[in-house]
């Protein structure tokens, strides 16, 4: 555990991400060791104090981390907020329930990423809370696999991944949908999505694209795309919204409303 945390700090310091990190330890009780700070060296000695023992107040610890982030945001209102939880995934003594915690994370727009070690991977609650927040939930089989996950750019910065908008949790039945989801996979041929630079480029409505791009007399790709855009702009689909790129006629952003009863509804 200590090695994983130290390597995570090393990666953060080596890359140009402007990140503040705090530390909360939990066992039978929850203890805030260090408030969020951009000076990562302050955390190194604290990692040496990590010990694994006692009961597990997992969800209470995440709840307290949420309050800590909200307090930090008073002076840093534009930051994106994330909690990284490394745990065996089991909870034996928390007072807050998973579905209430999931609702709180959503209301404060806090992403929870979890690395679930050992037998806790069979417990669906932490995976559900993570995914309902728009975060990852990994269940690596070895410490080496866990270290590889922590080295991913998508785990080092929220700005390196697509922003997800899961189904809103307003009551316990909403949370049950997420309990059916499995932990994320991370292999050389199956890495978490990383945001493509083109995704951040300016886009526009279908009608604006039809006006912006002038047709030519050729029968090539450009003319074909313009024909498709005109057809789509005249037949609005109730479940799809399409936004072509401002600079690239062939790149479209599509917002889709998922089927009823799924997290993407």
List strands and helices in order, with pairings.
Blueprint: H1 2-14, E1 21-26, E2 30-37, H2 41-47, H3 58-73, E3 81-87, H4 98-107, E4 110-116, H5 124-132, E5 137-138, H6 143-150, H7 153-156, H8 172-176, H9 206-212, H10 221-233, E6 240-244, E7 252-256
Parallel strand pairs: 3-4, 4-5
Antiparallel strand pairs: 1-2, 6-7
Model description:
The chain is of the alpha/beta class. The chain has two domains: 2-180, Rossmann fold, CATH 3.40.50.410; 198-256, no CATH class. The protein contains ten helices and seven strands. The protein has helices at 2-14, 41-47, 58-73, 98-107, 124-132, 143-150, 153-156, 172-176, 206-212, 221-233; strands at 21-26, 30-37, 81-87, 110-116, 137-138, 240-244, 252-256. The strands form three sheets. The chain has a three-stranded parallel β-sheet. A two-stranded antiparallel ribbon has the order 1-2. A two-stranded antiparallel sheet has the order 6-7. Helix 4 links the parallel strand 3 (81-87) and strand 4. It starts with a helix and ends in a 9-residue tail after the last strand.
């Amino acid at each position: 555990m200590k090695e994983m945390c130290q390597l995570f700090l090393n990666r953060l310091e080596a890359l140009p991400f402007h990140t503040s990190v705090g530390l909360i330890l939990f066992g039978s009780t929850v203890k805030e060791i260090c408030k969020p700070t951009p000076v990562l060296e302050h955390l190194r000695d604290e990692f040496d104090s990590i010990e694994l023992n006692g009961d597990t107040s997992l969800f209470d610890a995440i709840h307290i981390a949420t309050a800590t982030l909200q307090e930090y945001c008073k002076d840093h209102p534009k930051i994106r907020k994330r909690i990284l939880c490394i745990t065996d995934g089991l909870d034996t003594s928390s007072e807050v329930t998973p579905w209430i915690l999931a609702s709180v994370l959503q209301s404060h727009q806090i992403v929870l990423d979890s690395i679930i070690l050992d037998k806790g991977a069979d417990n669906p609650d932490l995976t559900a809370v993570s995914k309902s927040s728009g975060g990852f939930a990994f269940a690596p089989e070895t410490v080496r696999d866990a270290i590889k996950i922590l080295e991913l750019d998508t785990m080092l910065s929220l700005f390196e991944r697509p922003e997800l908008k899961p189904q809103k949790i307003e009551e316990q039945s909403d949370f049950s949908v997420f309990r059916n989801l499995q932990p994320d996979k991370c292999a050389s041929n199956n890495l978490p999505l990383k945001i493509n630079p083109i995704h951040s480029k300016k886009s526009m409505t279908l009608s604006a694209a039809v006006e912006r791009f002038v047709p030519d007399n050729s029968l090539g790709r450009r003319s074909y795309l313009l024909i498709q855009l005109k057809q789509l702009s005249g037949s609005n689909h109730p479940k799809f919204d399409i936004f072509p790129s401002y600079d690239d006629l062939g790149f479209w952003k599509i917002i889709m409303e998922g089927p009823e009863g799924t997290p993407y509804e």
